[in-house]
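Hey, sorry to bother you again with one of my protein questions. A protein chain has come my way and I'm curious about its shape. It would help a lot if you went through both lines with me. I owe you a coffee for this, so here goes:
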Amino acid sequence: MKTINEKLVDIQGRLKAPKNQRNNFGNYNYRSCEDILEAVKPILLEHKLTVNLTDETIQLGDLYFIQAIAVISDGEKSISVKAQAGININKKGMDIAQSFGASSSYARKYALNGLFLIDDTKDADATNKHDTPVTPIESGKAWLQKDSVQFNNARKAMQEGFSLTDIRKKYKVSKEVAKLLEL
């Protein structure tokens, strides 16, 4: 009979969780927590293992974050991995429940990534240059101009939950344009 560690090694070697989601603003594909769970369930069933995901809210000073814990178990022994995601309770376009939910999903995804050794270093979150040449200074990004198509797209993206930090991954943003985006 295989140990839980041997079963986990088998899952880590076999699991394929394709990036079936699309971010049109950033022009990249990604995988969600749900995509990982859908891909791993048949292998868990084969090994008679369960995965449980739990969250806890933690406060450090004025900062809040979600700590997700992914636990794989054979009923007797278990292995767990933790991951954290910050919560922006003032995120434009989101109420407080949506802010907590988004942070929970993000933390759970990365806890599962750690448990199942899903490497996101090639993921767009880590490497996407948004079709901009990379140079040592400011990554060769263009300035976001107010009253441009790009500005309107960035404003719409922020209304849908993107942050100014997300916009700055693609463009240089002046203080004036940042204020306009956040209106």
About this structure: The mean pLDDT is 84. The chain has two domains: 1-119, 129-183.
